[in-house]
């Protein structure tokens, strides 16, 4: 149990991941779906960032005063992933605006009701 | 001294990327089309030159920014992805002339330049996924192609295109995120993102922390399977194909899922294969099982669709099933069959969707009930549909026969004659739905509404006839398709641990 709690940060990550995925699947409101998708994506950033941070580690600049460095690569990767996430969210919201204009609703079941042949 | 040939791998990606930027600045659809055409015709020249070099003298490695791999990003082209690069760029080149009138008809004038901008971005992404030797870089390109694809689908005229694009956005993002989780876990265990390096280190990591590796691979396979629309992760595909503009449907059906299939082959055989032994894992059985379900369920659904685009979309799911089955059986003939079917399905399905695009151009409908006797009004279009349709069924003398031949050989060699029987008999389902279209088109009295309809202009007809000719050509002379595919399969299986 102690070992389990030692990794509490991973437990939080997994909780966020599952919560995000659950919202995407369970909610019919398209904006809520995008919120869930955002939470899901963000939790994945944590998967990369948590192991990359070493307690007491510094930025990888070689200096005789420091011996422990954090790996910078995951941070850079996630910076890219954040940009991708922002683009996805922006595009998703833009689509929701257009769907609202076209259908007058952003609830999935109401849209299916208006266009049964999806 | 700059040597342009040495920079081919990166030029394949940079050219459409820069052109996309330029197209974004253009006001008129016509100029943007000219630019797209130039890029689409330059790409296959570069890709074929590259593949010829690879086949003659082994894999080409390109270091982005001069950073040595595995620290820097490496573009690495071997026979497998060189082959896929040629496929994507040649399909792009063949279908581009079709875009001219089709896009002008289906899109509003102020959106046409943006359309080409997005199309070129999508091409950039697909080329990038294929050419890169870096697992995370592949994710970035995957998102470039996906985001532009969502926009392209949403440009469809019907309002349902918006909903289809949104659904694809949700599922596509989940798939890509699963891929990132998988890559992340592999990175944690091995400390590298370079595919070649990953392949070397995975064995040691798998011995130390097998659970991390297996979990990572599970995420990875599921994520990529969502992108390649392996049943049942394919709910996004029929809507996306049915409501997107014609050119987009042709392009996606022929290239986008194929590139995802390439990524699956790359991971299962080049990266996981040598270390863990893919044939020994349950992944192979799962893929075969899902492929079988895909073939039968999707073909059955296709039989009951009267909307041509939707029928062909479900048919795509079934055909992807054949490809993944070849991957799952994982022996020399079956893998050859899978790889060659990537090409063959790209040719036939591009041809079929293009014929439907021509019908939409002339009649404005895709509903089979309104198209009785269309064969007499648009004889060349429907002749091409018939030939590519026969290719889809797998009639002897067409490309489909070649792929199914190899798949059946593979199943027999695997000691599963029932699988060979299933592959052969499933063609009957394809006969049913393609046959239904042919019967309506050729043997019913012509509907009065189709009175003034005729074959489309040459710029649309010619690409279609080229695809129909390719269906027959590569069904007879297989040295370029099955010949190379067989070499690739041999190379892939050589490295795989048994």
Concise synopsis of the structure shown:
The complex is a heterodimer of chains A (118) and B (498). By secondary structure, chain A is mainly α.
Written as H for each helix and E for each strand, in order along the chain, the element string of chain A is HHHHH
Radius of gyration of chain B, in Å, reads 22 Å
Oligomer: heterodimer
Q: Indicate the mean pLDDT of chain B.
A: 90
The Rg value of chain A, from CA coordinates, equals 20 Å
Strand residue content of chain B: under 5%
Overall pLDDT level of chain A? 89
Poorly predicted ranges of chain A: none
The assigned structural class of chain A equals mainly alpha
Most extensive interface: A-B, 30 and 29 residues
* Discrete helix count of chain B: 19
Strand order, biggest sheet of chain B?
A: 1-2
Shape of chain A: elongated
Helix count of chain A equals 5
How helix-rich are the residues of chain B, as a percent range? over 70%
Structure description:
The complex is a heterodimer of chains A (118) and B (498). Chain A has one domain (2-114): Helix Hairpins (Orthogonal Bundle), CATH 1.10.287.3510. In chain A, 72% of the residues lie in helices and 0% in strands. Chain A is built from five helices and no strands. Chain A starts with a helix and ends with a helix. The mean pLDDT of chain A is 89. With 498 residues, chain B is mainly alpha-helical. Chain B is built from 19 helices and two strands. Chain B has helices at 8-25, 29-57, 79-106, 109-131, 135-154, 160-190, 195-208, 210-228, 236-243, 246-276, 282-303, 308-329, 332-363, 374-377, 379-393, 399-413, 417-443, 458-476, 479-494, and strands spanning 60-63, 74-77. A two-stranded antiparallel ribbon of chain B has the order 1-2. The mean pLDDT of chain B is 90. The A-B interface holds A 21, 24, 30, 33, 37, 40-41, 44, 47-48, 51, 74, 77, 80-81, 84, 87-88, 91-92, 95-96, 98-99, 102-103, 111, 115, 117-118 and B 136, 139-140, 143, 147, 150-151, 154, 159-160, 162-166, 169-170, 173-174, 176-177, 180-181, 184-185, 187-188, 193, 239.
């Amino acid at each position: 149990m102690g070992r389990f709690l030692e990794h509490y940060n991973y437990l939080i990550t997994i909780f966020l991941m599952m919560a995000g995925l659950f919202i995407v699947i369970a909610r019919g409101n398209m904006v809520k779906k995008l919120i869930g998708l955002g939470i899901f994506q963000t939790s994945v950033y944590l998967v990369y960032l948590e192991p990359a941070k070493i307690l007491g580690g510094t930025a990888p600049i070689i200096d005789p005063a420091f011996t422990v460095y954090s790996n910078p690569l995951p941070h850079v990767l996630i910076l890219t992933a954040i940009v991708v996430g922002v683009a996805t969210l922006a595009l998703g919201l833009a689509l929701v605006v257009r769907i609202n204009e076209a259908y007058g609703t952003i609830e999935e079941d109401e849209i299916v009701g208006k266009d049964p042949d999806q | 001294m700059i040597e342009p040939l040495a920079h081919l791998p990166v030029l394949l990606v940079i050219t459409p990327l820069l052109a996309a930027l330029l197209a974004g600045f253009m006001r008129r659809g016509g100029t943007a089309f000219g630019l797209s055409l130039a890029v689409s015709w330059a790409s296959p020249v570069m890709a074929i030159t590259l593949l010829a070099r690879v086949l003659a003298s082994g894999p080409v490695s390109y270091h982005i920014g001069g950073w040595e791999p595995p620290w820097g990003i490496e573009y690495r082209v071997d026979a497998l992805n060189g082959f896929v690069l040629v496929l994507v760029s040649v399909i792009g080149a063949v279908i581009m002339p079709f875009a001219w009138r089709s896009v002008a008809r289906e899109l509003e004038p102020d959106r046409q330049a943006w359309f080409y901008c997005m199309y070129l971005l999508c091409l950039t992404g697909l080329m990038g996924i294929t050419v890169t030797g870096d697992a995370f870089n592949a994710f970035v390109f995957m998102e470039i192609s996906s985001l532009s694809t969502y926009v392209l689908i949403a440009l469809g005229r019907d309002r349902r295109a918006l909903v289809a694009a949104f659904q694809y956005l949700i599922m596509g993002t989940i798939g890509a995120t699963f891929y990132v989780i998988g890559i992340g876990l592999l990175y944690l265990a091995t400390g590298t993102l370079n595919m070649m390096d990953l392949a070397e280190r995975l064995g040691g990591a798998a011995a130390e922390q097998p659970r991390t590796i297996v979990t990572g691979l599970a995420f990875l396979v599921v994520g990529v399977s969502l992108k390649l629309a392996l049943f049942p992760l394919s709910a996004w595909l029929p809507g996306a194909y049915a409501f997107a503009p014609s050119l987009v449907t042709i392009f996606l059906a022929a290239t986008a899922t194929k590139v995802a299939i390439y990524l699956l082959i790359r991971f299962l055989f080049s990266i996981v294969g040598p270390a863990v032994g893919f044939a020994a894992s349950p992944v192979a059985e799962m893929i075969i099982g899902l492929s079988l379900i895909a073939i039968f369920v999707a073909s059955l659904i296709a039989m009951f669709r009267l909307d041509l685009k939707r029928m062909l979309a479900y048919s795509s799911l079934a055909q992807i099933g054949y490809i993944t089955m070849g991957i799952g059986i994982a022996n020399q003939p079956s893998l050859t069959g899978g790889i060659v079917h990537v090409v063959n399905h790209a040719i036939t399905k591009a041809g079929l969707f293009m014929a439907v695009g021509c019908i939409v151009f002339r009649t404005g409908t895709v509903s089979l009930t309104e198209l009785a006797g269309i064969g007499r009004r648009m004889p060349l279009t429907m002749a091409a549909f018939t030939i590519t349709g026969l290719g889809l069924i797998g009639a002897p003398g067409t490309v489909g026969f070649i792929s199914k031949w190899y798949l059946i050989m593979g199943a027999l060699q695997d000691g599963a004659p029932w699988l060979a029987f299933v592959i052969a008999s499933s063609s009957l389902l394809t006969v049913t739905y393609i046959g239904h279209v042919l019967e309506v088109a050729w043997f019913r009295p012509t509907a009065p509404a189709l009175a003034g309809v005729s074959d489309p202009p040459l710029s649309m007809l010619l690409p279609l006839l080229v695809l129909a000719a390719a269906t027959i050509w590569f069904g007879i002379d297989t040295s370029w398709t099955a010949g190379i595919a067989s070499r690739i399969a041999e190379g892939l299986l050589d490295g795989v641990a048994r």
